Amino acid sequence: MRYKKNPPTKKHSYTFGILTTPAKDIFHSNYHLGLLSGIVPRLKAVKGRLKIIMMPSRSYRSLDQILRQHDLDGLLVLTWRWIHPSIARLVEKTRHPRVLVFNDPVPGLGVNSLYTDTNAGMVQAVAHLVKNGRRKIGILHGPMSIPFVTGKKRILVPFIDTRLKAQGFLRALGAKRVPVNKKWIHSGDANTEHEGYRVMKKWLGEKNLPEAIVCGNDDLAFGALKALKETNQRVPQDIAVIGFDDTKRAKSFSPPLTTVRQPLVQMGKDAVDILIRQIERPAFHPISKRYLPKLIVRKTA
Known about the structure:
By secondary structure, the protein is an alpha/beta fold. It contains nine helices and 14 strands.
């Protein structure tokens, strides 16, 4: 599919949309709030407008339909594989310079994409733990797949971000010759603080515990830390914890969270600039930009 180019018009500002669903609750997810902290001020600086577009019960036929129906100059999809399988298919099959997605990198996308090198983040996290004498290391990540119900069918869509982090974690252990214990690989049903707490409470009931845990995001880490505190586990003396994202809350959490920083605010700013550039001077190829994460050492590891 190819996008239908609208007639050229001179505009002093642009209207961008963010496609989501009520279930994703992007205004309470620390990851999404990080991206929005870059998107909103940057769009405001160029006198642009932002619309929140809720996915309807009936699927869109094309990306162009979303842009036309909501009178958008550009479309941002913060969680493009989580919204609905039909949106994932449209993104994977369509070439469109005025659409941009974040993370869940898939080779050959025909839309603009910004993503963090999660493998590099896991390498840094594991290397830090090993340097500090930890060799019994586990991981608490989010779901490997996301269930959707379409009609009478239940569809499982692979959660690429989680899978990349899990693979990167295992590779990082291998590079440091740290043995893998499958009993120390735990998965939550969602990437939320509640799930981090639930899974960690259950995990603490086991006899053989790791010396350190790497979490798939900061929210999972916050929940895990609450469970550890309730059971009088000392952090990091008994169990070290590392998160992933470095959201605003990580620094002020008690104890302050050691985490892998995704440059979420910068990614949000860059997304606005890339879409404006693609609107004004459409490129032949979509723009794909990789960001390197950085381990931020605080008190939990």
